[in-house]
Each structure stands twice: as C-alpha cells, then as structure tokens.
Amino acid sequence: MQRTATQTTPIQAGPGPSDVRPYRERLLRIDDVCFMTGLGRSTIYAKVKAGDFPSAVQLHGTSVAWRETQVDAWIAARPAVGATPDAQPAAKPAPIAASKPGRTARAHRPARGASVGVL
C-alpha cells in the first residue's frame, strides 16, 4: 500500500536511513577511557568484573572498546566531592611525632651534612 500526503496516520519508522540517530555512537579504547575517568587500566577492568563500570564491546579478536555514552553516564552518576549531605567532616591529620623523647618534631629537617648556610 502506497501512502500519500493526504493520509493522517503516522508512518512507523522502520530500519533505514530515516532511522539514523542525530549523533554517532563512538567507541572508546582503553586509553581514552582511562583519560576520561582518571582511572587506571587495572581499576577499570576490576570495576567491569565487579559490575561497577560499563562492560566493553568486542571489536574483533581481543580488541574491545567502550560506548562513549555509557562511560559519560557512569561519570555523570559519580557524586561530586562533598555533595553528600550525610558526609562527616574529615578528621584532622595526626601531628608529626618526635623521633626521640624531648625533641620537637619538625615537618622538614635538612639531611645530615647538608649545607644550610647563607651565601
């Protein structure tokens, strides 16, 4: 049945050129994923295994890649630093302990034999 311009029923989109998305899904290799997330290779593969990161798609042989939209969604789902309302304030770091009783602790001490004099 041929459709004409006078028909008012919507045309169902089928597979074909009219079904093209307005963007093109990019596949990212591991180096790109590491760069985007700030995670290392081992961490990414460990998170995939644990189910905490999107799975890669097989390209061929042992080559894999990640869908950019899935990586972007994973990044967007990460909470911002300090964004959780139930967050406890960070504990104060412990003071630097003195190495011997009676000595005061210093944050930085020059190495033995190092010249500390003024020119």
UniProtKB/TrEMBL annotation:
<feature type="compositionally biased region" description="Low complexity">
    <location>
        <begin position="83"/>
        <end position="101"/>
    </location>
</feature>
<protein>
    <recommendedName>
        <fullName>AlpA family transcriptional regulator</fullName>
    </recommendedName>
</protein>
<feature type="region of interest" description="Disordered">
    <location>
        <begin position="83"/>
        <end position="119"/>
    </location>
</feature>
<dbReference type="Pfam" id="PF05930">
    <property type="entry name" value="Phage_AlpA"/>
</dbReference>
<feature type="region of interest" description="Disordered">
    <location>
        <begin position="1"/>
        <end position="21"/>
    </location>
</feature>
<feature type="compositionally biased region" description="Polar residues">
    <location>
        <begin position="1"/>
        <end position="11"/>
    </location>
</feature>
<dbReference type="InterPro" id="IPR010260">
    <property type="entry name" value="AlpA"/>
</dbReference>
<dbReference type="InterPro" id="IPR052931">
    <property type="entry name" value="Prophage_regulatory_activator"/>
</dbReference>
